[in-house]
Write a structure and sequence with these properties.
Number of strands: 7
CATH class: Alpha Beta
CATH topology: Aminopeptidase
Order of helices and strands: EEEEHEHEE
Structural class: alpha+beta
Distance between the termini: 23 Å
Strand content: over 45%
């Protein structure tokens, strides 16, 4: 899958948006300067007609690969409280922490 990497630098850190070249899927990564080694993943989205084709999984693998290459050891995310979404993240190796404010907090420790 070809992707476009959109980088931004902010006073607090940086963000990267990874967009499938066909525009059908995207995900955001945030890296805060005051929390080195940790990535916050959000906004994973695949348009309806392109779901169930592995795009989300490919984007997650791209995120994890980027993080490993840049010394990130943990990825955090907040999942919507929808069973199939939480199950997807669990299949990707993310562990639930707790429900808070209508979201499931989850994390994954990256290994080399």
């Amino acid at each position: 899958m070809k992707v476009i990497w959109h980088h931004n630098t902010w006073p607090w850190g940086k963000t990267i948006t990874i967009i499938a070249a066909n525009g059908g899927a995207c995900v955001d990564l945030s890296f805060e300067d005051n929390n080195p080694g940790v990535c916050y993943l959000s906004g994973l989205s695949v348009i309806g007609p392109l779901r169930k084709r592995g795009l989300a999984k490919q984007l997650m693998l791209a995120c994890e690969s980027y993080c490993r290459e840049h010394g990130i050891f943990r990825i955090d995310l907040n999942s919507v409280m929808t069973d199939w979404v939480i199950d997807f993240y669990k299949k990707c190796g993310y562990s639930p922490i707790k429900e808070q404010d209508g979201f499931m907090q989850m994390y994954k420790i990256l290994t080399k």
